[in-house]
Amino acid sequence: MFVTCIVDQFYPVVGESTVRVLRRLGVDVDFPSGQTCCGQPAFNSGFWADAKPVARRVLKMLRGDRYVVVPSGSCASMIRVFYPELFHDEPGPLAEARDLAPRVFELSEFIVDVLGVTDIAPYGDSAGAPESRKVTYHEACHLRRELGVTTQPRTLITSAPGVELVEAQQSDVCCGFGGSFSVRYPDISGAMLQDKIEQLSETGAERFVSCDSGCIMHIAGGMERQKVDMRPVHIAELLDEYLGQE
Amino acid sequence: MTGNQAEFLSNLRRTLGRPHDAPPLAISDATALGRDAGEVARRAESIRGRAQEDADALADELETAAALAGWKVARVASTQDAAGYIADLVRELEALSVVRSAQAVVERLDLEGVLSGAGVQVNAMAVREGSDESSADEQRSAMRQHAIDADLGITGVDYAIAETGTCVLLPRKGISRLVSLLPPVHVAIVERGQVLPGLDEFFALRRAHSLGGDLGSYMTLITGPSRSADIEYTIVTGVHGPGEVHMLLLG
Amino acid sequence: MEAKTKNFNTAAAEALNDPNIQANLHGLYQGFHHARVDAAAATPGWEEMREKAREIKAHTIDNLDHYLEMASAEVTRAGGSVYFANTAEDASRYVVDLARSKGVEIAIKGKSMLSEEMGLNDRLAENGIEPVETDLGEYIIQLAGETPYHIIAPAIHKTRDEVAELFEEKLDAPRYHEIEDMAGEARRQLRQKFIDADMGITGVNFLVAETGTIVLVTNEGNGRMCTSMPRTHVAIMGMEKVIPSMDDLGIFLRLLIRSATGQRLSSYVTTVTGPRRHDDEDGPDELHLVVVDNGRSRLLADPELRESLNCLRCGACLNACPVYRKVGGHAYGWVYPGPIGAVISPMLTNLGDAKDLPHASSLCGACREVCPVKINIPRMLLYLRKELAQGETYPESRRASLVDRLLMKGWRLSIANPIMLRLANKAAALAQWPLARRRRLTWLPGPLGGWTRYRNLPAIASRPFSKRWRKMR
């Protein structure tokens, strides 16, 4: 597992949930030590020279033949899609990046496409499942458009006993996080956030699910500020609620 | 005034990293440009054949698509029925003057005869045969004014396209550009066998024609009334072409 | 047009704070964007068409010299004239000189973004020629003295009341309430101009090289008016608008029109191949095609940016862009707004003066998803950001501020290895202590304050995951 800096530093529970969920599904999970960041903040800001040493460390750390599972669409995209971009002019790391790419998966993508699990009910105890709780789903942009992952999270969410998925309006529209965009252009980011909060609230769901902690930090941060009665849950946590039961 | 074409193209070649004595163009398979004249001609032949064989089915398709695109579509069995439709329309619009193109199908309607009793002026937008240069110029000025003043314009079509509900006019001698443009109402008469399945078939025929001769100065593909959605996304018609368009399917 | 790209933040703020503009921009998602999505879904083979068009465009651009030469020969053979202009100024000079030599008093214009690049209306007016915009949206903004807000719908930011007021003031018209009446007024006003005009100036949607055919896509009919009523027709064209064959047109028309408005076909598709023939009943006596570079060579020269020349100017990326739908067209400060504008406006003017354009994007990728010719805009935005930060290909464009570079160094230091990260974690925990209430921060200093303007920030974890792993191993 590549935990990502946001999860490591701000949402460590998501990391714990990811490990538990994967183990419950029969996966032997390793956490290579020395993880810090995938380098996306520097890459997205145009400081590729600063991103490269960070990325080289990651490439070295992830050598081998294990799958790399990432509880984030944008970090998985960085490693799988953008590392080859970053190293387009350096044949050595480029080859490594191309070698690594087919092994890298976002969490829900891994569970559905690699493990072949489309229904998590048999892996837990449905007797202990709560009665129907409404959730809605926010699609993270890189997850959808760089990795092409749209159905897998929904498949897993709807398969969780006791969970009812309600689709939000404009669920494919960006929440306005965009990494440093949220701080460089706060008013535009805030305006996009406002729309997203309204659209999610309209569903009447108790919680919104996402596969990306960056989006969650941004949306939940806004909902809290406005005292909107909806809580965030990362897909790893949602699955862990069911699979983590004794 | 081609002026600095050589310099402009030479700059482009340099930008493209092409040497001065560059090889000729190697046409990619993606574009249809590479098809040879024989292939283009055969394809056109086949399309023309199919247009006749499938005429009825294509007319049905056209009717649906044209209605969707905002045409008022009517089937008329004969030229008399077509003339009758137009006479009714003239009455409804309280039209005082009408312009028409000189296509065969329009000539057969005998609009001058049909509408003369009602005191409606009918102007054929075609320079008279055998006119000399200066007479032709005078006639053209007069025709232009007629089109500006007319309440209704009537044309045949050269093709219709079922995919999109489109009428195609290829202006030339006897077919003015202005008949279907200036008056607020336009009637287009489509004859059996003029309907093509789609845009690709239409352009294939045009391409074949161009390889054999002059394409002509103009083509106009009309798909419904003139429309705009520039103010608050609200659709309005009749800015600036005809706001009302009728398609008569003959036969 | 003068570039005001430096004013991005001010102009964006104006749009964000204007409820009318926000309401009008909001309509783009359900309107044009959804129409495009539906039209694409209803067109069999849409994805194959996109790929084919991308290939055709890439091939054409890679061989632009050949195709322009072919087109020029064909236009000339059909009786037209072709002028190649390196710069906007040169192109304007040609058109103005031509108009003056013909004693043109009124020039009617179809919609042309290139003419905005050229500032052509001003050049004509300066020389005693009255330019009249005939597209309803362009007509409105011409009266308002503004620049286009959107590539397809130039006046989309105006409410009906604003238009009514404009007409009342500038046209001495009654104060209308219904949009139909306003459109009727425009029709009446422009009708006489169509009749009296000596010259028609249009843009070009496509130029078919094989036959020298100019293709115009309109819904109003003003394109037909401009190409049929006056005795001289001038078509101005960005040099990249060429496509090889008439047989390619079907694909491109479908992609352009269904991406722009969702219609199966626009009300009018008009093609021009040379001036009128001798026996034609009407049509212009002269056709002049002006092919313009104006900086497009810069895009052509850069392999990372060449693909942007595939653009069909459909506007789908604007409609899909969540940032454009908030800040609108004027924020981008030059002719081309939205995602494609964020790439080409800087490159056609001055990249260093336009640093906000590639940065004001969350890189969501919606633009790429809807582009009919599959231009990878996000990738180009990343490339331009790299140039602004590091200035490798365009050293004069480097604009990395001290704050940016310090923040980058700080970040590098803290994530260099796990030990540094742990130190950074401790430092952050300490720094946040006075600010955190119940594990939340509601205020951050300096450049980071942008976050807390709208959101809380969770406190940094005292036990990060890497520490917790030991117990889970």
Nutshell version of this structure?
With 251 residues, chain B is an alpha/beta fold. Chain B is built from eight helices and twelve strands.
Describe the model.
The complex is a heterotrimer of chains A (246), B (251) and C (473). Chain A is of the alpha/beta class and 246 residues long. Chain A has 13 helices and six strands. Chain A has helices spanning 5-10, 12-24, 40-44, 48-61, 73-86, 91-100, 107-114, 141-145, 151-159, 181-184, 186-202, 213-225, 235-243, and strands at residues 68-70, 104-106, 133-137, 163-165, 207-210, 231-234. Chain A has a four-stranded parallel sheet, sandwiched between helices. In chain A, strands 1-2 form a two-stranded parallel ribbon. In chain A, helix 2 crosses helix 13 (235-243), helix 5 runs antiparallel to helix 6 and helix 7 packs across helix 9. Chain B is an alpha/beta fold. In chain B, a hairpin with a 7-residue loop joins strand 10 and strand 11 (236-237). In chain B, helix 2 (37-53) packs across helix 8 (199-212). The radius of gyration of chain B is 22 Å and the shape is globular. Chain B starts with a helix and ends with a strand. In chain B, 46% of the residues are buried. The mean pLDDT of chain B is 94. Chain C is α/β, with parallel strands linked by helices and 473 residues long. Among the domains of chain C are: 43-296, Rossmann fold; 405-472, no CATH class. Helix content of chain C is 50%, strand content 11%. In chain C, helix 2 (19-42) runs antiparallel to helix 12 and helix 16 (338-348) runs parallel beside helix 19 (377-390). At the B-C interface, helix 1, helix 7, helix 8, strand 9 and strand 10 of B face helix 2, helix 3, helix 4, strand 1 and helix 8 of C. Strand 9 of chain B pairs antiparallel with strand 9 of chain C, so a sheet runs across the interface.
Give the SSE map.
The complex is a heterotrimer of chains A (246), B (251) and C (473).
Chain A: H1 5-10, H2 12-24, H3 40-44, H4 48-61, E1 68-70, H5 73-86, H6 91-100, E2 104-106, H7 107-114, E3 133-137, H8 141-145, H9 151-159, E4 163-165, H10 181-184, H11 186-202, E5 207-210, H12 213-225, E6 231-234, H13 235-243
Parallel strand pairs in A: 1-2, 3-4, 3-5, 5-6
Helix pairs in contact in A: 2-13, 5-6, 7-9, 11-12
Chain B: H1 5-15, H2 37-53, H3 55-68, E1 72-76, H4 79-93, E2 97-100, H5 104-109, H6 111-116, E3 121-124, H7 133-149, E4 152-156, E5 159-161, E6 166-169, E7 185-191, E8 195-196, H8 199-212, E9 218-222, E10 227-228, E11 236-237, E12 244-250
Parallel strand pairs in B: 1-12, 2-3, 2-4, 4-7, 5-8, 7-12
Antiparallel strand pairs in B: 5-6, 6-9, 10-11
Chain C: H1 8-16, H2 19-42, H3 46-62, H4 64-77, E1 81-85, H5 88-101, E2 106-109, H6 113-118, H7 120-126, E3 130-133, H8 136-144, H9 160-171, H10 179-196, E4 199-202, E5 206-208, E6 213-218, H11 222-228, E7 232-238, E8 242-243, H12 249-260, E9 268-272, E10 286-292, H13 296-301, H14 316-320, H15 324-327, H16 338-348, H17 356-359, H18 366-370, H19 377-390, H20 402-414, H21 418-432, E11 436-437, E12 440-441, H22 449-452, E13 457-458, H23 465-472
Parallel strand pairs in C: 1-10, 2-3, 2-4, 4-7, 5-8, 7-10
Antiparallel strand pairs in C: 5-6, 6-9, 11-12, 12-13
